Amino acid sequence: VIRPEPCHVCGSRIRFGKTAIKCCQCQLLLHTKCREQCPSLCTPRPHHHSWPREGVLADFAPSTPPLVPTLVVQCVTEVEARGLTETGLYRVPGAEQLVREWKQKLLRAGGALPALSSVTDIHVVCGVLKDFLRGLKEPLVTFNLHPAFLRAADIPSDAASDTALRHVVSKLPPANRDTLAFLMLHLLRVSHSPDCKMDVFNLSRVFGPTLVGHGSANPTPLAIMEDTPRQCKVVARLLSLPPDFWRGFVETEQENLVPM
C-alpha cells in the first residue's frame, strides 16, 4: 500500500507499506487477515467508484463564497470553541472507529449536520477534519500546482519565496484557495495557543502530507521519500504568510461560514 486506504471488510485504514488484497474486478481492497470475511461474489465496477463518497474539494463546497465545505467549518469551529487548551492538538490521534463514524455521519448529512458538541474527545473532531482532507481525490494544493508549491517553498530568499507562494495560491481553484486560507488562519490560532504546544514546525509536520500530499494519485516510493520533507516546508512557508493575506479570501460573506 502506497496511499493509506480503508479495508472494505473491517473499515480500518490499511497503512503505508502494508500488504493488502485487491479484487481485480470490483477493486475491493482489504487486509490479508480479513480475507475470510470477504464476500465471495462481486460486481465489476470502475476503480474510481471504490470510494463513492469521496471527490475533489469543490464537490463539497457551498455555492456562495467563501467556498469552504461545511464539514471543515464545523470541525474548525468546534476545535476553536473547546480545543485550544488541549496539548498536542492535531498531533494526538482520536479513536479511529469514532473518527470514521463521525466522518461518514457528516458526509451523509450534507447541510443538516449533527452537533459535534456531543463528541467528548476533541481529538476525534481533529481526526475527522484530517481524514476528510486526506480522503479527497487530490490534495488541497492540487496535482497540477503541486510542483509549483514545492518550487516556491524551496526559494532561499524568504521575500521571494513568499511572493512566489502568494502567486501560486492565487492560481488555486476558488474552493481550494478559500479552504486553504480558512485552514491557515485556524492553524495560526492553534500555533499561538501556549497550551496546545503545537508551533508552526509541529503543525507543518502534521499537515504537510495532508494538505500538500504528492503530485499524482499513485506516487512512487522514491517520490514519497523525496516529497515528505518538502511537504512540511510548504506548510511552514504558508503559515509564515501574514494573516491579512489569508483573510482577504475568507472575510467576504463571512456569515456564510457560521455552521447552522
Q: How would you characterize this protein structure?
A:
This protein starts with a strand and ends in a 10-residue tail after the last helix. The chain folds into two domains: 1-45, Wheat Germ Agglutinin (Isolectin 2), domain 1 (2-Layer Sandwich); 57-250, Rho GTPase activation protein (Phosphatidylinositol 3-kinase, Chain A), CATH 1.10.555. It is globular. The protein has a two-stranded antiparallel sheet. A two-stranded antiparallel ribbon has the order 3-4. It has 260 residues and is mainly alpha-helical. Helices cover 47% and strands 4% of the residues. It is built from nine helices and four strands; from the N terminus they run ββββααααααααα.
Task: Describe the protein's topology.
Blueprint: E1 5-6, E2 13-14, E3 20-22, E4 29-31, H1 70-82, H2 96-109, H3 122-134, H4 146-154, H5 158-170, H6 174-191, H7 200-212, H8 221-240, H9 243-250
Keywords: Metal-binding, Zinc
Domain Rho-GAP: 55-246
InterPro entries: C1-like_sf (IPR046349), PKC_DAG/PE (IPR002219), Rho_GTPase_activation_prot (IPR008936), RhoGAP_dom (IPR000198)
- The 3D shape can be described as globular
* The named CATH superfamily of the largest domain: Rho GTPase activation protein
Number of domains: 2
Total beta strand runs = 4
Ends distance: 39 Å
Strand order of the largest sheet: 1-2
Helicity level, as a percent range?
Answer: 40-55%
**Which class best fits the helix and strand makeup?**
mainly alpha
Could you tell me the radius of gyration in angstroms? 19 Å
Order of helices and strands: EEEEHHHHHHHHH
Query: What is the overall pLDDT average?
Result: 86
